[in-house]
Each structure stands twice: as structure tokens, then as C-alpha cells.
Amino acid sequence: MTTAAEVDPRRWHRAAFHGLEPLPPDDGRPLLGVWGNCQAESLRVLLGDGPDAAFRTVRLPPVFEITAEELPDLVRTAAALDVLVVQPVRDDYRGLPIGTAQVRALLRSGARVVVVPSIHDQGLYPYQAMVHGPGVVEPSPVPYHDLRTLAEHLTGTRPTPLPVERIRTIAEASVAELARRERQHGAIPVSDLLRPAGIDAGHTVNHPGNTVLVGLARRIEEALGVGARATDPGRVLLRAVITPICEDVVQALDLGQGSRRPEWTIDGIEVTDETVRRAQLDWYRQHPEVSVAVAAIVKDRLAGLGVSA
Which of 216, 191, 213 is nearest to 200 (CA)? Predict the structure, then answer.
């Protein structure tokens, strides 16, 4: 029998998906999987790991990690599911047949599908950008660009902070855009949960806080007719990077005293905002071609800071 010590840790982490161990035995509860980005695994935890969980679950790889060699594992696992919770993913994503419609086609007859949005929210982080495109790679030491730091690299001067009214407008527009995508894809809504969650709306633009994730999980359960059972697991789920929250955002969104967060937390370690700023300026100097490519993609947002890219 294959043991964990003999297998790549990444594969053993998803042992049932890879066929290294059996799928959860049938105990009368439906077998559920969540297909999507980094938010998918957190939803699986909330739907299947609690003491009152209505589902058995199987851990699936995120769409940005799966390889062509793992497609047979996806076909086999999808065919065993009773329920698929899925984010909108375009057909042939990264050149593989792993889009939402393509994975749905792998399900057995009678399997249920629930669509949820991919949550992206600029409200707390009006300067943060996660950028993909030709010539773009993730910066260091965090995989997010700070538009103020990028502008400083491009012009030699750090831009003045956005007015409070502009920060408020960005937050409102971000919620409206998520709501539009929810309607477009027929997804369970979550956009209305963001602003009431305060600083727990998200730790980065694409890592929602537990408050939002638990709220979405409960809505998934209700859509599937099992009642709202999900509870906070007692640990921060998407905690790899926690972004500072500046005073201007606290004021603009009426977050209340004590909501300002001056430092980053990266893999559990507090790091000053100045340390990250200097590190990213160094990184841009070492990768000037990337800074140009990123600036072209976010030129409209840079223009809002008074910077022409």
C-alpha cells in the first residue's frame, strides 16, 4: 500500500482525488466537491468539516494548479459526485478542459450543481491589484501589486492618497460589479455580505474573511435544502496574506475605531508596510519589463491616482 512518505506531499494532500485512498464511504450523505480558485477549499471545509455537516466532501485542486496529467483524476472524481459547487471558469482555462461547463459535463445524471461567485472586492484595499496577463509574474514578497508603489517606481514620486469620497466610490463600484457577475452567472449572491462584514470582508482583494465565507456556505446549504449549518471553524481560513487597512479606508467606509491595521501578516509573520513597499520597489527595479506590462493593464486605475502609464 502506498504511504504518505512515498508520495509528493501535494498529491497526498488530495489523496482521494488522486486515487491514493478511497473516496469518503457512503454514509447516506451526498458527496460534494467545490471547483474553483483559492476560495473553493475554504468553502469545502465549511460545508463538510463541521460537526453537523450535511455532506461528505472530497478535496479538489484549485483550477490554477491542476495539470494535464491529473485530468483522469478529475474525470473519475467528478463522476462520483452528488453535488458540485462551482465558480464560473471559462472553457479551456489554461489550455485544459476544466471550465465550468466542461466539468459539469463530467457529472453523473442527477448530480446537483450550485454556482457561486469568485469573490473579488477592492473595498478595503483600493490600491491593491492582482494582475494577470502577458509578461506578468507575481511580485515579491506578496503576490499583489500596490498601485501607489508601482506609481512611485514609474514616476519617482509616491502619489497622494485618494480622497475619502473616491475610496467610497471604489467600494460601491466593487460591490456592484460582483453583483453584476452574480446575476450574469446565476450564482448565489454574496455581494450584499461584504460591507456589513467590516474589516472581515477580506484579507486581500481575493481572499474573503470568515464572515463572508460562512455566510456564503450557509446560502449554499439553504439552496441545497439542508438548512444553514456552516459555522466558523475557529481559525482564519484564507490567512496566508493579510493586508494593512489604512485610516482613509476606515473613515470612508465607517469601519469604526480600532479597525485600522498598519502591518501586513505574511504566513503568520507581521511585516511592516514600509518593508513591503521597499521590497516591491526593489523588485520592480529588478523586473522593469513586468512593471511596464502591469502598468499597461491597470492604466485606468493608475490614472485615478494621477499617473499616466
Answer: 213
* CA distance linking residue 183 with residue 120, whole number of Å: 15
**Global confidence as pTM:** 0.93
| Burial (0-12, 13-18, 19+ Cβ within 10 Å), 267 | exposed
Question: Which helix (H) or strand (E) element contains residue 204?
Answer: strand 202-204
Q: How far is CA 227 from the centre of its chain?
A: 25
How far apart are the C-alpha atoms of 237 and 214, rounded to whole Å?
10
HSE-up (13 A, CA, CB side) for residue 42 = 30
List, for residues 13-64, the tens digit of each pLDDT value: 888 889 899 999 999 999 999 999 999 999 999 999 878 899 999 999 999 9
Backbone φ, ψ for residue 262 (5° rounding): -80, -20
β-pair type (112-115, 83-86):
parallel
